[in-house]
Design a protein that fits this description.
Order of helices and strands: EHHEHEHEHEEHHEHEHEHEHEHEHH
Number of strands: 12
Mean pLDDT: 93
Number of helices: 14
Structural class: alpha/beta
Largest sheet: 6 strands, parallel
Strand content: 15-25%
CATH topology of the largest domain: Rossmann fold
CATH architecture of the largest domain: 3-Layer(aba) Sandwich
Low-confidence stretches: 1-7
Oligomer: single chain
CATH superfamily of the largest domain: Glycogen Phosphorylase B
Strand order of the largest sheet: 3-2-1-4-5-6
């Protein structure tokens, strides 16, 4: 399939669009401006979004989506084939693959969309009518801007680019957070949400650094810290609470995505690494202090958020791809000092 001219399809004739974005929380969050911009320009179009089950809450209730298809994070080949058969029954006018992974490629290949748009990925580019580069030839663009480029090739200009859009928590979810704040007597305190997870070892700041930062933050009057993370972070939360010897609260593994967002939105500061929760925080008005290791803020910083970014200038960050640390000590993230993060936090406290 060759490169098509962007005017191959008239926007007014688009009736059905399929958007694919699999895998991680932050990546799903950063596609939401595409949904908003596309619906604004093509209000007549029915938008369907394919997401994996752990991240369904990111798009559930999005007012611009007409249908959401949820795929299991892990599934057998025969089950994927069955899903593809169901998806194939709908003849989409446009398919936009914002992922480019194997599963998305198979869906794209066998879906009868008139126009297929996706990233120029090695061994997979042939399945798209229009291929967009992941990165510019020179410099770096933010991931949100990269996703918006999928609309530009259709002749849709999103200027300005819409903000991130995560539906509000339900009344029950809001009540859960209200109850936590009340039961722990946090109403009169500044609340700091501290994300202690990382996603992988390349982004892990280390428990010792976290404990030292907590000691510094606890010097501040009327300040309370709430640890958040996934279920696999609960053991670390226990370690931090035990070793820090300060009054801490942990909700690691106890919150859904919208509940976590609600907690962040009602707090005074979010602290953590480049991660899904950081991008979730970017969809609120709460200030962010984020420390970056191998990932580059130019591509993944909190979108349109009040944020202070901390990073170390190691050249190897550009080449490790989070697969091999040439020093075996993850120094790009581990050498960020608790004092550096504390000083950044003071700007917002």
């Amino acid at each position: 399939m060759g490169q098509h001219d962007k005017q191959i399809i008239h926007l007014s004739s688009i009736e059905k669009v399929l958007i694919i974005r699999l895998r991680r929380m932050g990546d799903n969050i950063m596609t939401t401006p595409v949904i908003t911009a596309l619906k604004k320009r093509c209000p007549q179009a029915s938008l369907t979004y394919i997401v994996e089950d752990p991240f369904y809450e990111i798009v559930e209730g999005n007012p611009f989506l007409d249908q959401i298809i949820v795929l299991p994070r892990k599934q057998k080949t025969k089950d994927l084939i069955n899903h593809i058969r169901k998806i194939r029954k709908t003849k989409y006018d446009v398919l936009i693959d914002l992922f480019g992974g194997p599963k998305a490629a198979w869906i794209t290949l066998f879906t009868k969309a008139k126009l297929k748009i996706g990233y120029a990925v090695k061994y997979k580019s042939f399945i798209y009518h229009i291929r967009i580069p992941r990165s510019p030839k020179r410099g770096t663009i933010h991931s949100v801007e990269g996703h918006i480029n999928s609309l530009k090739v259709m002749g849709i200009e999103a200027n300005p680019i819409p903000p991130l859009l995560i539906p509000d928590a339900s009344e029950q979810e809001k009540e859960k957070i209200s109850r936590f704040i009340k039961n722990q007597n946090l109403e009169d305190f500044k609340i700091i949400v501290f994300h202690i997870g990382a996603g992988n070892k390349f982004r892990d700041w280390g428990a010792d650094n976290m404990i030292e930062l907590i000691k510094l933050l606890n010097q501040r009057p009327k300040t309370k810290i709430v640890l958040v993370g996934a279920k696999e972070d609960q053991k670390r939360a226990e370690e931090i609470i035990q070793k820090s010897r300060h009054s801490l609260f942990s909700l690691a593994g106890d919150l859904g995505l919208r509940e976590l967002r609600e907690l962040i939105s009602r707090s005074d500061l979010f602290v953590g690494p480049d991660s899904g929760p950081m991008h979730l925080a970017a969809s609120t008005d709460t200030p962010i202090v984020a420390y970056f290791g191998p990932t580059l803020p130019a591509r993944f910083k909190p979108w349109q958020a009040i944020a202070f970014i901390i990073e170390k200038d190691y050249e190897c960050r550009f080449t490790c791809r989070q697969r091999n640390c040439i020093y075996n000590d993850f120094r790009c993230i581990r050498t960020i000092s608790p004092s550096d993060v504390y000083k950044a936090c003071l700007q917002f406290l």
